[in-house]
Amino acid sequence: MKISFITTTLNEEKSIDSFLSSIAKQTQKPEEIIIVDAGSTDQTVKKIKTYQKKLPIKLIVESGVNRSRGRNIAIKQARGEIIAVSDAGCILDPNWLKEITSPLKKKNVSVVAGSYQPIAKTPFQKCLAFYTCADVYQKNKNRFLPSSRSIAFKKNVWKKVGGYPKNLNYCEDLVFDQKLKRAKYYFHFAPKAVVYWPQRKTPKQAFRQFYNYAFGDGRVFFSPLQTHSVKISLIFLRYLIGLIIFGLAIKYPIWRPIFAFIFFAYLAWPIIKTRKNLSGSALFLSPLMQLLSDFAVMLGATRGILENIKKKV
Predict the structure, then answer these.
(1) Cα separation values, 256 from 73, 114, 169, 244, 259, Å
(2) Which pLDDT does position 63 carry in this prediction?
(3) What is the 3-class SS of 149-192, one letter each residue?
(4) CA distance 311 to 38
(5) Which helix (H) or strand (E) holds 292?
(6) What is the Cα–Cα distance from 207 to 267, expressed in whole angstroms?
(7) Residue 263 half-sphere exposure, CB side, CA atoms within 13 Å?
(8) pTM (2 d.p.)
(9) Is there a contact between 161 and 225 (Cβ–Cβ < 8 Å)?
(10) Euclidean distance between CA atoms 264 and 37, whole angstroms
(11) Contact 1, 29 (CB under 8 A)
């Protein structure tokens, strides 16, 4: 079975070399590599073209397309029966393509969920990795939904479920997973198919990351294909209860020690839940990371929900 590797890019000049180099080092090579660029204004396209001399890259420039549409364009153009997907900005383990595509040779396997590991050098990045890679830390192969930084599937199942949701730029991979799950396609978990994912370096970058993910979740908040609506609702509920108790504490002194206890318990909770995976400075950054992610998620989800309602009206 022929293998087509597909990805999308937008202003990835800082990471595209390491990404394409990791493809070149694969122990099993794809028959073709299709890259859809969304209109990069940096050196991304120029760098991709230099790799066309040593890799079977087909470059398609479609300015303004989101990730979903870019992937759908690439897959539609693909000649392979097997589609392997990862994200620019990542680094593929040399055996990644072999590990993520070999299970698809079995008739009953339609989708392969690969793994991913964070690249985290600083305490901040190590702390962030616990939040962005929670599914990796708490893997349950029966519940794990693969990110499109590490997934492979048969092209015919992509076609049957209608491809990636073309209106989404974030959370699109999990919605695609849900479509495949609801269609009863069998998922195989391949823990050795590893993609290495560099973590954001600053609080501003991390906030934007959480915000964007939550914005995508907000766009499908009321959809049967949603994946995080309950978790997001619980975050809003926690802060609503906190605000009510805070209001009571201002008016009634008896509530002040109760509010203080709840406040400090909430700050201690991230340390307790991350203590098995983090240590040192990274561990004690977790309360700040919790607050940063909470507010980013609430803002992003709110905007996503409102935008979705606006489009329906």
Answers:
(1) 57, 49, 44, 12, 5
(2) 97
(3) CCEEEEHHHHHHCCCCCCCCCCCHHHHHHHHHHHCCCCEEEEEE
(4) 23
(5) helix 286-312
(6) 18
(7) 11
(8) 0.92
(9) no
(10) 47
(11) no
Separation between Cα atoms, residue 240 and residue 65, nearest integer Å: 37
Q: Is-contact 80 2, C-beta < 8 A? A: yes
- Check: CB of residue 60 under 8 Å from CB of residue 74: yes
Cα 37 to Cα 121: distance, rounded to the nearest angstrom:
29
**By C-alpha distance, which of 9, 145, 34, 26 is closest to 92?**
26
Q: Is 64 left (phi over 0), alpha (psi -120 to 50) or beta?
A: left
Q: Which domains does the chain have, with CATH numbers?
A: 3-201 (3.90.550.10), 220-312 (no CATH)
Report the run of H or E that residue 270 belongs to, with start and end: helix 256-274
Dist CA 233 CA 302 (whole Å): 11
Longest dimension (CA), the chain: 73
Where do we find the tokens 């698809």?
104
Residue ranges in the chain whose pLDDT is less than 50: 137
Q: Which two structure tokens, joined as six digits, stand for 236?
A: 């809003």
Question: Residue 291 has what pLDDT?
Answer: 98
CA distances in angstroms from 260 to 4, 204, 268, 273, listed in the order given? 56, 28, 12, 20
Pairwise CA distance, residues 13 & 42, whole Å = 6
Specify the pLDDT at position 313: 58
DSSP class of residue 91? E
Element at 297 (helix H, strand E): helix 286-312
- Calculate the alpha carbon distances from 233 to 108, 180, 214, 226, 294 in Å: 36, 25, 12, 12, 11
Residues in CB range of 309: below 8 A, 6 or more apart: none
Q: In whole angstroms, give the CA distance from residue 77 to residue 192.
A: 28
